[in-house]
Amino acid sequence: MKPKDEFGQELDKDSKPSSNLSQIPWVRPDLVHKRTRKYYYDTSDLIIIALFSALGGISSTFVGYLGNLINSFLPIPFGGGQVLAGLHTFWIIFIYLLVKRKMGTSLIVGIFKGFIEFFCGSAHGILVILISGSQGLVIEMIIILFLTYENKKILSLAAGLATASNVIIQQIIFFNSQVPILFIGTIFTISFISGIILGGIFPIYLHSFFEESSILNWRKKPSDIFQKKNMQIIRVGLIIIIVIFEITIISFLVFQNRHSVQITGSLYNPYTYYPIDFIGQEITIEAELIGDVTYVPTREYTGVPLSIIVARGQPIYELYTVKIIASDGYFAYFNSTVIQTDSSLILETIESGLRIVAGNFHGSFWVQKVAQIEILETVNN
Fold first, then answer.
1. How many whole angstroms from its chain centre is CA 265?
2. pTM given for the model
3. 159 and 250 share a domain?
4. What letter would DSSP give residue 138?
5. If pLDDT is split at 50, 70 and 90, which confidence band does 356 have?
């Protein structure tokens, strides 16, 4: 005869009350059954990952806006907010500790938390998934590199490097040659220290407090043999796949950023210019580049007329000035009359980026690597 519980329900021979979930105060032990087959993640692990990742994603969204608020009070573009950057990594390390240091957890939490942040309205947009996932990936790689699961110093170092990785990713994608290397190094250091303290030491000691109390008594120890042997090949394989996937995403974003222009200023509809959005509106012109030190004989150029690009933004004023700004800070001006009447003014897409072709102007107006087109009100003196 099959054994029965106190309610008279038959139990399967390969099932028994869980010694794990049955000890959670809010779960009735007589209603919890667990199959004898062991899985890498218990149900309780998945619950912890889901709940705390969601909490981390929600809180990180507000931490991001708080960081932007700090930046608004400081004369630097995004360095000040990095003092709080460790709070993003806090959740990855804390959840990793809560599930008894099971490998793969940091990467899963990073990606899942990034999705939550994105849907909660992160200021970084969809890029936050890449940033958060990269932080989890860095932690996984550091743990694998040092082959340690419990060393507090290594975990703190991993948290610091993971936190600082957001600076590198943003610099790669939104590269601006005007930003000094010293400045990048400074905010990297700030982020690294924040990661060690807020993302490493803080969750480690918070978890130690939990373990010394009775809060985590219902958690069981994972199988070290299963972790270190059976999952090693799968872990390394997944890491390789994720790294390749991430490199592909970063390469795509870098390409997109290099071939995009911010259309800003006195407009009803500021937007970001992408060549793909203007397919079919290109024209081909013949132009001769005559500069002070550069000369290119007459040849054909294909691009989108500057008048169409400006018109898409809907200028507020009838008379305006267009400022073409390159990624290195170089700029040139064109007035609205010229923009509307000169068909030789086009924005050409080339391998190195976008450039202005100005057939009826001196070579100094042929701005290379265009990063921004700003519409300014024309002031008549």
1. 27
2. 0.51
3. yes
4. H
5. very high
